[in-house]
Amino acid sequence: MIDFELNESQKMILSSLENSLNEKFDIKNENKKVEGLEYSNHGWEEIKNLGYLGILSNEKNGGFGLNFFDFSLTLENWGSKLCDGPYIENSIIVFILERMKNKKFDALIKNISDSKIIMTSIVSEQFINNEKIPVVHKKNQKFILEGKIINLPYLDEATEILTLVSVNNKKKLLILKKQNVDVIKENKTITGQKLYEINIDNLEISQEDILENNGLNLIDMYVQLFTIAKCSESVGIAESILNMTNEYLKNREQFNKPLGSFQAIQHMASDIYISLSETRELIRYCSKLSIEDENMKKFVSLSKIKCDEELSKIAWTAHQLHGAIGFTWDYGLHLMTRRILLNKSLNGDFLFHSKNQFL
Amino acid sequence: MFSSEELNFKKDLNSLIDVFLPKEWQYYPDEKLDEHWELSQKIKKELAKNKWIAPSWPTKYGGLNQDISRSIILSETFAYRMSPGNDRFGVRMIGPTLLKHGTEYQKEKYLKEITNGEIQWCQGYSEPNSGSDLASISTKGEYDEENDTITINGTKVWTTLGHRADRMFILVRTLPDSERHKGLSLVLINMKDPGVKVNPIKNISGSSSFNEVVLSNVKTSGKNVVGKLHEGWMVALDLLNFERSGIDYIGWAERCLDDIENYCREKKLITRDDIKMTLASLRSSLESAKIMTYKALWIKTKNEKIQMEPSMSKLLATNINIRIHDFAFDILNKKVTINDKNQNEFSKRILKNRLFFISGGILGGTTEIQKNIIAQRGLGLPK
Fold first, then answer.
1. What is B122-230's CATH number, 3.30.2170.10, 3.40.50.2300, 1.20.120.330, 2.40.110.10?
2. Most exposed residue of B169, B239, B340, B354, measured as fewest CB within 10 angstroms of its CB?
3. B264 CB contacts (<8 Å, ≥6 apart)?
């Protein structure tokens, strides 16, 4: 049965998060971040304090016990306020740990939900781009980890790192304490987000730190969920582009009329609205699919393709509609364009996702 | 998206179509051809036996009182199979309008005719001088209060199935000196009545599915006004919203994409990265347009004021249908454009449909009109 209605609890999730974030959104602060004058992980403290890191964990583990679609709705909100921080990473790690149904992870899940442990990760990029990953050797009955991780985000916020490692030439997930790694390089993305290159040198690890699959394809699960979650975030960002543009078109006058009264302009604004609506619906549909659904992988790729095709088009159209003011640093439209472009560059390109349709 | 019961309904529909449609059916239904029209009537009768013509309508009017999912499956399946027999004008246009605005007399008489699969409707909206500017129509409907009749004079154009139709829902100006949206009425007439002359118009694909309809002193009863007399504009717009969804285009587009993808596999073109990328991009846009179409149809059942969802879904569905047919055209290339003895039915179909589907962005309100609606009603931009 077809039903597009959001239920009362979903509407509540959206409005409560929106109210909390609304007061905090300030483009000027975001601007400083891009300039590198001041780092701001906007929205992150609110998400932690409101307990949202446990959104996908069971109530007995201190979470909200909500489903992935509910989570994706919060991401639209999170994206629309240009929030930044490892919200997606932690939520998906919790989701996967819950799926493993192993009591030994209960404490970890609870600690993440309570934001006592904060994870960061770059697993999706490591996997999709087939990056060189740290290797686990067995030396004198001990497990030794060596290697590098590149472009790791949110290290400042994190206490632990989830990474791909190679164990006997097989890729596995491993949880690593931040204090055990050395930062060797710091980069910045086009949005001002810090990325780190870290080195792991002769680190003794416990076999317990390696997440065993137990019949689940954990890596694939993480990559699929992370990809679709970032798409939901991008939809939110595009929504803020639409709102900003619409407001401008209503208020800016040229030829003694509001810009938005000209048909050529109206049609471009409609294009933005249509692109955003169709992208949002496809991503919401995909977020409702069960991770075990045989079509999940295909739909994640179709969603990512749609997201990349439409949202960058939305950004360019919005700039065109703004004219020169949208080209300025202070106006702030570029912040959203940068976020859209950054997200587009993550989680596999057009060809990668096209190939997923023909596996 | 659909329950297992609903998917079983789809299987049953396909089985029904299998009985009537030749195995290698490759044609978009062209009701000008007697063979297609007869097939259409047979299939409609069979649907009627199962009460499948309008499954979401109330049982007392011949429906099954089921939710919109079955109607979606019905339209999409018929389009995918390119099967005749799916009644757009009765079931999806005047039917829902009567359910919303009609009198009990109208519902009892006309809805039952539709669900019995007996009657073909057509639409009398556009005129030679009134296309996108529908509110400028000049066809007159003179109301005689004493005899409670309306006498209609004027010309309607682009009337699909006018040559086959038994009845027409027609927008006429009933207040003689009224302007624009005021003084219009939506009226039901009998196409077999004296004074109705249907002149076929040949379209660019070579068929004559639409017509000019000249009306000279055509009379109908006052009981056949839908909604209030002189206040038909909002009723007419509601009907347009029922018309718009793009669900047929989704079925046609998906069939073409599946067929051309299979062709690319057969010819080993699928190994090329550019082909993979184009096919994936088309599939992605088809899936998003499909969900938008479902949403537009679902919204119509919610009794809320319909805003821009039908406009968006119609636009997206017609666009992706053209994009997919363009791609198929590019892949088949000269197999489509050079009419030699090797030209197969698939190539002929791609050419004919590519030409015919140009109409998608024009009929039922052009793409540009849909964008106006979205900008003004959706985004609140000033007129």
1. 2.40.110.10
2. B340
3. B270, B275, B279, B331
